[in-house]
Amino acid sequence: MTSVFYEARIPDDDRRRRLYAGDLFVYSPTPASQQLVELARSMLDEAFAPLDPQYAQFDLSVERYAQILAALKPAFIHHPRCKELIPALLAELGCDPQRTYFDVPRMRSATSGDYLTTGIAYAFHPHRDTWYSAPFCQLNWWIPIYPITAENCMAFHPSHWAQPLRNSSSEYNYQEWNRTSRFAAAQQIGVDTRKQPHATEAVQTDPQIRLLPPPGGIIVFSAAQLHSTVPNTSDRARFSIDFRTVQLDDVVAQRGAPNIDSYCTGTTMGDYLRCTDLAPLPQQATAAYEDGPPQAVVGAA
Ligand SMILES: [Fe+2]
Description:
Blueprint: E1 4-6, H1 12-20, E2 24-27, H2 31-48, H3 62-77, H4 82-92, E3 100-102, E4 106-110, E5 139-144, E6 154-156, H5 174-180, E7 218-222, E8 227-229, E9 238-247, H6 248-253, E10 273-274, H7 283-286
Parallel strand pairs: 1-2
Antiparallel strand pairs: 2-7, 3-9, 3-10, 4-9, 5-7, 5-9, 6-8
């Protein structure tokens, strides 16, 4: 069973425990999340000027559109203001800044129809982030930049929380991906040749949950939650921000969601920065993760 908590101001320890058990949390916009959205919007406006970013695809060649995103997305990811606003947002929602670590935010786009669904605007098939070397204590934070609808949001597939899926995660190694494929995103127009983990059997996508917070609202979920990009059948592009966190005590104690079907190697543990001073996780805390997740145990959930 998956419960969706709205505006739940419970201690972070309790929230993480529930997220590791497959629950979802949704929050209204906070002052920092609104500033993050404003920053993203101003960068989008500038990048697509004089066009409205949500409708720009109808006036641009797909090559030009991909070129704009290829400059815009890294500029947002590495914007120094993001490293101030994300810790502020996490503090507003009750995370301990001394013990919470975050990675740089991504800006995602989902264009209307089949215009661009590869490379720099990759439309994610159902996946768990734990198939991509994320630790089982990782939490994902997802924020729409403009109003979203059921036709252009993201979806959760909770029947697979406890039900393993055959998948190709055993072929994925995060360190290897960084070396070979990450930087090729902008070139992947039409066909995406990069090897990414995916289900190798039919996914039971229904029932599915589509949460529709307002711009600046926040969805929080476990990295082990099966989720996907909804095919965008709306008339406009969807833009969103997401980032991930881990909490030091859980990293050390190797607490997190159960592993039922992730077989990847490598780890993203080197990516997270402490909220207070942007320090990485201590090496002795992450050493146990270097070879990949603990072995999947079928039926562990
Ligand atoms: Fe994901």
